[in-house]
Amino acid sequence: MSNEIKRIGVGARMSEAVAYNGIVWLAGQVGNPGDSVADQTRQCLAEVDRILAEAGTDKTRILSAQIWLADIATFGEMNAVWDQWVPQGNTPARATGEAKLATPDYLVEVIVTAALK
């Protein structure tokens, strides 16, 4: 394990992810504003896959996930996409809640923490 802090996708306000001591924390991922909850969920999860790969790990190593929905009534729609994506036998600890997101056009936001390989 490295004590070096590795930042991925560094921006002026935040990084897409930060890896330290064998763990990577991802910033919240959102989809295209205006798309459906299912489409935004797919987009979020594709970004999670991309960032995890850049960090040197994958979704089988996700330790925890937080999912924020603009409307908890869309829980089933989001879960249908999640269930196809999450690796069975390697499901993370997960919490899902309802929250106002950065703009009303964002319907879902996914935040994960994963172990590095």
Written account of the structure:
With 117 residues, the protein is of the alpha+beta class. The protein has a single domain, classed as 60s Ribosomal Protein L30, Chain: A (2-Layer Sandwich). It is built from two helices and seven strands, in the order ββββαβαββ. Strands 1, 2, 3, 4, 5, 6 and 7 form a seven-stranded mixed sheet that branches. α1 runs parallel beside α2. It starts with 5 loop residues before the first strand and ends with a strand. The model has no long low-confidence stretch (mean pLDDT 97).
Please identify, by name, the CATH architecture.
2-Layer Sandwich
Q: What's the helix count?
A: 2
Instruction: Output the structural class.
Output: alpha+beta
Question: What is the fold named in CATH at topology level?
Answer: 60s Ribosomal Protein L30, Chain: A
Write down the domain tally: 1
Rg, Å, rounded? 14 Å
Shape: globular
Task: List the secondary-structure elements in sequence, H or E.
Answer: EEEEHEHEE
Question: Helix amount, in percent?
Answer: 25-40%
Number of strands: 7
Gap between N and C termini, in Å?
Answer: 10 Å
Report the sheet-strand fraction. 25-35%
CATH hierarchy, class: Alpha Beta
Query: CATH homologous superfamily?
Result: RutC-like
How is the biggest beta sheet arranged? 7 strands, mixed
Unreliable residue stretches? none
**Mean pLDDT, rounded to whole units?**
97
